[in-house]
């Protein structure tokens, strides 16, 4: 490519200008004809059109400035014409793409194996969570969420764990520091269950309610094969007139069959939660031995899977402060809460809860 310096012009008559611009145009055309790689095209662009050191810029500063006033117009016209020529040469070079020689060197070998791109997949916890939610969605339940950083009121007091109540000890958690000046019910903590969203839902809407609430919860539990200080739950709440324990049993029996297969049986064992009365633990017939008794079910034939019960009137009384329609004399309801990890471990035969969080592709890849 020509790198001849731009000479100074001594004569500015038409003939001298024609000659000077013709010489430049010839150089530009010769250089453009030799362009054979994208890099060379770019270098050409910089050499001719570059804002600071480009040749056209130099022509303009050397010639146009030196020209007497009466020659400026003629010079400017030729300058613009030359610039248009260079630009069209550049366009042609860009459009032409690589030369045949360059193409031959880079020819695409379609017999080479392609680059494999891994497709993402749902994490087994997300998958199980969505599966549980869709079982209830099919029964007409809506889906809600609530905050993970919760107030003492929603996590405990409104769910009928008064301050100092021993049941609070079973759900110890992390509390946000520096809140001593706040009233106890306004203090923030990491929620220990999804049950506070029961109250948040009722405060926002009068009955009837049918809602499931998936989410992350936190407890001061030492990690072991089946416990993690952070895990997931799906909460359920159904409130209407004449909701009975039979409705609760029928609903959860159906849900367990939908999740684990139609041969699964359920049984309801008396239990205690401050926010339900009566309360029950739901057990399903052992899915590993079919109920005969094995190591997994500790020879009992049953596996405990979730907590549930009829909504305690004290909870309706708290909700009634904002929504008077939650009058325990007129309505009733049931609630349930299940651990997503526990259900995923059963469904997929996972024996260490920590596998869900380790991010090991050898584990996660099995769920694709
Ligand atoms: N919130 C309870 C727990 O985390 C589960 C539960 C929910 C029990 C709803 C009864 C009703 O242990």
Report on this structure:
The protein has 368 residues and is of the alpha+beta class. The chain folds into two domains: 90 residues; 244 residues, 2-Layer Sandwich (BirA Bifunctional Protein, domain 2), CATH 3.30.930.10. Strands 1-4-5-9-8-7-6 form a seven-stranded mixed beta sheet, with helices on both faces. Strands 2-3 form a two-stranded antiparallel sheet. Strand 6 and strand 7 form a beta hairpin. The two termini are 57 Å apart. The model has no long low-confidence stretch (mean pLDDT 92). The site of phenylalanine has 11 residues, from strand 8 and strand 9.
Write the layout of secondary structure elements.
Elements: H1 14-33, H2 38-49, H3 55-66, H4 72-96, H5 100-105, H6 124-137, E1 142-143, E2 149-151, H7 152-155, E3 188-190, H8 196-204, E4 209-218, E5 230-240, H9 245-260, E6 266-273, E7 276-285, E8 302-311, H10 313-320, E9 332-339, H11 340-348, H12 361-364
Parallel strand pairs: 1-4
Antiparallel strand pairs: 2-3, 4-5, 5-9, 6-7, 7-8, 8-9
Question: How would you summarize this macromolecular structure in one to three sentences?
Answer:
This protein is of the alpha+beta class and 368 residues long. It is built from twelve helices and nine strands. The chain has two domains: 14-103; 124-367, 2-Layer Sandwich (BirA Bifunctional Protein, domain 2), CATH 3.30.930.10.
């Amino acid at each position: 490519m020509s790198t001849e310096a731009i000479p100074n012009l001594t004569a500015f008559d038409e003939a001298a200008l024609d000659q000077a611009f013709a010489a430049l145009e010839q150089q530009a055309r010769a250089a453009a004809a030799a362009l054979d790689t994208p890099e060379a095209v770019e270098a050409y662009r910089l050499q001719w059109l570059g804002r600071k050191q480009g040749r056209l810029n130099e022509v303009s500063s050397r010639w146009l400035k030196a020209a007497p006033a009466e020659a400026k117009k003629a010079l400017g016209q030729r300058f613009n014409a030359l610039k248009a020529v260079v630009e069209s040469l550049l366009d042609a070079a860009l459009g032409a793409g690589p030369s045949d020689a360059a193409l031959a060197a880079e020819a695409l070998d379609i017999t080479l194996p392609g680059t494999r791109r891994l497709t993402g997949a749902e994490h087994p916890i997300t998958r199980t969570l969505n599966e549980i939610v869709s079982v209830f969605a099919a029964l007409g339940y809506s889906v809600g969420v609530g905050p993970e950083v919760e107030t003492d009121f929603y996590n405990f007091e409104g769910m009928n764990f008064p301050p100092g109540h021993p049941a609070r000890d079973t759900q110890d958690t992390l509390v946000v520091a520096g809140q001593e000046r706040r009233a106890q019910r306004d203090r923030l903590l990491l929620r220990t269950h999804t049950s506070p969203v029961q109250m948040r839902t009722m405060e926002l809407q009068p009955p009837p309610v049918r809602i499931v609430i998936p989410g992350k919860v936190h407890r001061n539990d030492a990690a072991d094969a089946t416990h993690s200080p952070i895990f997931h739950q799906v909460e359920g709440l159904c409130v209407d007139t004449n909701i009975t324990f039979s409705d609760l049993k029928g609903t959860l029996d159906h849900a367990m069959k939908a999740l684990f297969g139609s041969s699964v049986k359920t049984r309801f064992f008396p239990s205690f939660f401050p926010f339900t009365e009566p309360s029950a633990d739901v057990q399903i017939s052992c899915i590993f031995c079919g109920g005969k008794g094995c190591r997994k079910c500790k020879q009992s034939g049953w596996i405990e899977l979730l907590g549930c019960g009829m909504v305690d009137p004290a909870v309706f009384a708290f909700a009634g402060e904002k929504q008077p329609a939650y009058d325990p004399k007129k309505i009733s309801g049931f609630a349930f809460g299940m651990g997503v990890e526990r259900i995923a471990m059963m469904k997929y035969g996972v024996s260490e809860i920590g596998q869900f969080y380790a991010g090991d592709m050898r584990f996660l890849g099995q769920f694709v």
